[in-house]
Design a protein that fits this description.
The chain has helices at about 5-15, 45-50, 75-85, 105-115, 120-130, 135, 145-155; strands spanning about 35-40, 60-65, 90-95, 165-170, 180. The protein is of the alpha/beta class. β4 and β5 (about 180) form a beta hairpin. Keywords: Metal-binding, Zinc.
Length: about 190
């Protein structure tokens, strides 16, 4: 059985046994927080436990490197929807040490893109259309600086109310220890 089949078989059993009942919650976060974190698999369960976040407590967005790379992209839109439509009163940007985005380089990623079957012609067309792959596939050198940048992008957004503190933290993915980078209360 392939992975999709396994997921669907498990889901059927999950629903029939009503295992979903223990996860039922409101669409509004109990703690009125939104967490932007990295999509790293080590953080899936560790991050909420380390922050004392239970099911229903927070809106959690995940993106590579906990980056807000465009002030009017989908991540920023989701954050603003959280604030204006879903009762979010505080935002936490949580990066982590040993992040895969720290090693992302456009040249290497483009080689992998080609290896997976995307033609040079397609890449050339995108580049001629204005896509800057060096910017699009840009990683970072310092997770702390990256967190500061995302905090700044969110906190200084023209649609973000001053009343919403934006905090920045960096987590150790081995222990769950959080280090404060930006205290959003001290704006």
């Amino acid at each position: 059985m392939n992975l999709l089949g396994e997921i669907l078989t498990h889901n059927k059993d999950f629903v029939e046994k009503k295992e979903y009942e223990s996860y039922q919650s409101s669409k509004f976060p109990n703690k009125h927080v939104l967490i932007l974190s990295c999509m790293d698999t080590r953080l899936v369960e560790l991050l909420p436990k380390a922050m004392n976040i239970s099911n229903g407590d927070a809106k959690i967005l995940k993106t590579a490197g906990a980056l807000v790379s465009h002030p009017f992209g989908s991540i920023m839109r989701s954050i603003l929807v959280g604030v204006y439509e879903l009762e979010v009163d505080e935002i936490y940007v949580v990066g982590h040490h040993d992040c895969g985005m720290a090693s992302v380089k456009a040249e290497q990623t483009l080689e992998k893109v080609k290896h997976r079957g995307i033609s040079q012609e397609t890449l050339d067309t995108l580049q001629y259309s204005g896509v800057d792959f060096n910017r699009f596939f840009r990683g970072f050198d310092s997770v702390e600086d990256s967190v500061r940048h995302s905090v700044s992008t969110i906190g200084n957004h023209p649609l973000m109310p001053d009343s919403v503190p934006v905090h920045g933290l960096v987590m150790d993915p081995e222990t769950g220890k959080l280090n404060l980078v930006v205290d959003g209360y001290k704006k």
